[in-house]
Amino acid sequence: MRRGGGQDGRVLDVLALSYQGLPYQLKACFLYLGNYPEDFDINAKRLYQLWMAEGFISQEERREDETMMDVAERYMGELAQRCMVQVELQPDEDSIITGNRGFRYCRLHDLVRDLCLSKAKEENFHQVIECGHINQQEHPSSSSMVTSIGGNTCSKIHRLVINLDGNSNFHLFEQEERARHIRTILFFIGDDCDYSFGEQLTRFSKESKFLRLINFDGNPFDRKRKDQKSYQKK
To answer: Does domain 6-117 have CATH number 1.10.10.10?
Structure first.
């Protein structure tokens, strides 16, 4: 985490205290935001569904007449009140139809994202892989990342985030028997990415004993808002 000095450092100290004061379930929801690329506008409704699929939203947290989605939105509101996330409300015309203004998108401020990624690293919350980026010196090759995923250093990683851009030649599942501890795979796919992994991913999902959630999200690299698709293993 980039602490630096001056005002930014003081803000980070305050945010770190805010994070420490979060209930356990809100800490998990907050860390999950670190899965998304920088400056990414996160669809709130879709995020709630992922929180629920991950088990972060408990039936026991439901108040009278609340749905699980209501609980997730309440969690988002608590994070926003603590300045841990920036939110955008639904347009007025949508709220007339649904009867609830609600949140439409959320995003992380740069300093908050620094904190989020730092805490995620401490908690071994996820592993992020950049693949197919133009600057290959900054982002390791697919072959080296396959080795690291299969190695002992990642034996406790249960959540994998894969950013695919450009002409990705990424073979995550070459070492399938050594990657079966993964429970969640989140793909962020750029518009110019031509990556075919359907058959391989289908086979892996059927053979894995632990994989429960696969999510596909479009184009984080030019920061357009795209629809998301996900698959939850039964």
So the answer is: yes
